[in-house]
Design a protein that fits this description.
The protein has about 100 residues and is α/β, with parallel strands linked by helices. It has helices at about 25-35, 60-65, 75-95; strands at about 10-15, 40-45, 70. Strands 1-2-3 form a three-stranded parallel β-sheet. Strand 2 (about 40-45), helix 2 (about 60-65) and strand 3 (about 70) form a beta-alpha-beta unit. The mean pLDDT is about 80.
């Protein structure tokens, strides 16, 4: 399938702190990327624990509201591999469509 419904060609991974916080300005950048069709995954750099949308002012709540997808309890490295595999699969399916 070609055109606007075509799979994205890249993604961005944001490795936040704590529950997935990043600070002022990041939510706006995420919203801009999502509006352009670029998937954004939000992970946390902590050793254990999930991404939770708790804090505003650039925190995880704002970033998720801007359109990022929470990586759950995956580390940034695991989330990157999963997102790359998903992207590769959607591109493969996209190229197979007539």
């Amino acid at each position: 399938m070609k055109g606007p419904d075509r799979a994205p060609s890249s993604f961005k991974l944001l490795a936040g702190t704590g529950l997935g916080n990043a600070g002022p300005g990041h939510a706006e950048a995420v919203a801009d990327l999502v509006a352009r069709g670029v998937p954004v995954v939000l992970a946390t750099r902590t050793l254990a624990g999930p991404v939770l949308g708790v804090y505003g002012h650039g925190g995880g709540a704002d970033i998720l509201a801007a359109g990022a997808v929470a990586a759950g309890e995956l580390t940034p490295f695991q989330a990157r591999i999963l997102a790359a595999a998903w992207l590769g699969k959607t591109r493969l399916i996209d190229n197979m469509a007539v």
